[in-house]
Amino acid sequence: MIETIFFDFDGVILNSLPVRDYGFRKIFKEFNDVLVNRLLEYHSLNGGLSRYVKIRYFYNAILGIDVSDEKVQELASKFSYIMKTELTNKKYLIAETVEFIKQNYKKYNFHIVSGSDEKELNYLCKKLDLSKFFKTIEGSPTPKNELVKNILEKYNYNSNECILIGDSVNDYEAAYLNKIKFYGYNNEKLKNKANYIEDFYIFKIKE
Questions:
Q1: What is the tens place of the pLDDT at every residue in 142-186?
Q2: In whole angstroms, what separates CA 157 from the centre of its chain?
Q3: Are strands 181-185 and 162-166 parallel, antiparallel or unpaired?
Q4: Taking the CB of residue 151, how many other CB atoms lie within 10 A of it?
């Protein structure tokens, strides 16, 4: 019997990925488009990773240079400002997911576990009137697999009674590492990862 559902945020509840692409282009506007496109490709393949990881990846793996913690924080703050300015618009909400959440939040324990910055995430959820549906809303810089692990321990959840819904391989890995069921959504590449949600309007959890 499923009691608890962990939700990823970007791409599952909020269609924020194009805006986040724009954010990365903005903070790295002084660099060649070819280099930034490589970052966006990495970003697309690793949606569940935090911006801190992605900013470091740009410098370390793409540019081949070191980057200070201070520089990473500076760029992450600029990125966050862009996100807070744009993503409070309810037009980015994924309607079918939000409807599922509204219809079922009293039946299950709902938690958000995201690669997005935690303070920004709580700000967006408050502005988008989502906060009341979730027991916790947690994000980076803590890695997603640790977020799930900590919640399982804090609330003494039975892993057999939990699922994680996400749109990236990082979400799948967080579920796998914590021995909970994974449901893919909004990314057809995840269809081979067991369960997949085609449409939240008709979605029924396999108890």
A1: 999 999 999 999 999 999 999 999 999 999 999 999 999 999 999
A2: 21
A3: parallel
A4: 20
